[in-house]
């Protein structure tokens, strides 16, 4: 039900499941997901913490990662980093967890640690589109535009429909004062998503400059 965005029905069903079996960790995780999607972050945190507390010997990676996501959304980067690291202890090869940790280090201003975890994720999956994109954002933040451009290009090679990578490529080329390349990548982005206002605004700015 929650896959179809029928959150209230899903919430009721998971609550019934927990009433019948208060030890059902997956029901708490699912209930937390429903609350998270319904913008009830506090309720989601409480349910995921319950899931973790129920079985200390379980793989709590997903629940810990979900908790970390909320802390990151709330800009509590230290707590987010703590929970992502705990998630990784359960699944050291989970590239999503590694990406999340790397991105949070970037947001916290620790660019060296951010690069370390993103490169570790890339070692595990060289076709990781989000890893390549995240590295592009990191290098752009560092001011290393040539490496940023290469990473964004790599993400497009994996998925030519990834419009955000085209946008970031255009923005990076603008920083490098390469107006024609910026225009070209924005045109490609608009071919994929012609109604995107963000792309249109930048394109109009580039053409007018």
Report, as a whole number of angstroms, the end-to-end distance: 50 Å
> In oligomeric terms, what are we looking at?
single chain
- Described by the principal axes of the CA atoms, the overall outline is elongated
Average pLDDT works out at: 92
Helix content: over 70%
Pattern of helices and strands: HHHHHHHHHHHH
Strand percent estimate: under 5%
What structural class results from the helix and strand content?
mainly alpha
- Tell me the Rg in angstroms: 20 Å
Relevant terms:
209 residues; single chain; mainly alpha
What does this structure look like?
This protein has about 210 residues and is an all-alpha fold. Helices cover about 80% and strands about 0% of the residues. The chain contains 12 helices and no strands. It has helices at about 5-20, 25-35, 40-55, 60-75, 75-90, 95-110, 110-125, 130-140, 145-160, 165-175, 180-190, 195-209. Helix 1 (about 5-20) runs antiparallel to helix 2 (about 25-35) and helix 11 (about 180-190) runs antiparallel to helix 12 (about 195-209). The radius of gyration is 20 Å and the shape is elongated. The N and C termini lie far apart (about 50 Å). The model has no long low-confidence stretch (mean pLDDT about 90).
């Amino acid at each position: 039900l929650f896959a179809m965005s029928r959150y209230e029905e899903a919430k009721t069903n998971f609550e019934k499941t927990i009433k019948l079996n208060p030890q059902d960790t997956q029901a708490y995780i699912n209930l937390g997901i429903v609350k998270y999607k319904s913008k009830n972050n506090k309720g989601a945190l409480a349910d995921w913490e319950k899931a973790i507390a129920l079985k200390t010997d379980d793989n709590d990676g997903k629940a810990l990662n979900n908790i970390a996501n909320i802390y990151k959304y709330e800009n509590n980067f230290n707590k987010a980093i703590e929970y992502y690291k705990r998630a990784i202890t359960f699944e050291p090869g989970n590239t999503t967890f590694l990406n999340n940790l790397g991105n949070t280090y970037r947001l916290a201003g620790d660019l060296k640690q951010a690069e370390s975890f993103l490169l570790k994720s890339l070692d595990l999956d060289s076709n990781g589109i989000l890893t390549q994109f995240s590295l592009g954002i990191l290098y752009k933040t560092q001011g290393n535009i040539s490496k940023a451009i290469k990473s964004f290009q790599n993400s497009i090679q994996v998925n030519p429909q990834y419009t955000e990578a085209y946008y970031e490529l255009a923005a990076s080329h603008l920083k490098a004062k390469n107006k024609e390349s910026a225009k070209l990548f924005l045109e490609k982005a608009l071919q994929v998503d012609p109604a995107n206002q963000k792309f249109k605004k930048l394109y109009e700015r580039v053409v007018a400059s």
